[in-house]
Design a protein that fits this description.
Blueprint (H helix, E strand, L loop, with lengths): L1 H12 L2 E3 L2 E5 L18 E4 L5 E4 L5 E5 L8 E5 L10 H13 L3 E6 L14 H15 L1 H4 L6 E6 L1 H12 L17 E5 L11 H8 L5 H6 L13 E6 L8 H12 L4 E6 L17 H11 L4
Helix pairs in contact: 3-5
Length: 303
Amino acid sequence: MKKIFILAYFILTAFTQTKAQQVIPLYNAAIPGSKTAPADFKETIETGADGVLRISRVTTPTLTVFAPAKANGTAVIICPGGGYSILAFEKEGTLVAKKFAELGVTAFVLKYRLPNDAIMVDKSLAPLQDALQAIYLVRKNAGVWGISPNKIGVMGFSAGGHLASSLSVHYNDMKIDNQENISLRPDFSVLIYPVISFGPYAHTGSVKNLLGDQPTPQQRRYFSSELQVNGATPPTFLVHANNDGTVPVKNSLLYDEALARNKVPAEMHIYQEGGHGFGLYNRTTKEDWFESLKSWMQQNKWL
């Protein structure tokens, strides 16, 4: 009966549904830390000359669900990148979710709030709150989608990789309502050309958008994921290009070094070329990183 009730709840709260996709509001009650948006503050969806669909000014965070024809029990929450300024929602979100669904993995694309003082009491906390809320909802209602509660991962690209790594190291820092004390720890992490460090190798745009012009040393340390790794940090798969001119490859290297020091299983693929923002396809190499990811997931029994 309880399962039927939960399923009915999601049906009622899904405002958009097409085929295997379902869009679910992240919060039913008040959004934590939010302020009333100015009248002219509206969510914007645009496709640029480069063909990339970009979402900005997110006020209502959501999860878009891509349910496979036959779920294998594994799930992944995908955080698109965009420097904490926009979300490359299709290139680093829905297209990736469709690939996971083909493998039997239930994929959730997170449309998280982008830091903005106009609608947030503390803009530095909003994205992490949304990531915490996302894994809370997925794990709490795992049975609805045929998901194993111990096979829920997080994935992120660029600044979305920073958010995914922040969730991976700060999952115990309760910033949401979690009366059931559900574990918010991802079971694995997938980080694609991620922003990791807010130190010397930081992507300055991500730091400024999240923390403002004058972040404190404490803020920089908190949001430098390589400094927060411990033995309980989730196993991680990393992808980066050596010639990334936007987010230096050192970000992935620092995180991998921290994982190795703490004996956390990890696999890293560093490409000679590819630059930044190649999404699913690095055209400079014959290796398909998603196929490598598939092998890693099979090795660890998530597929």
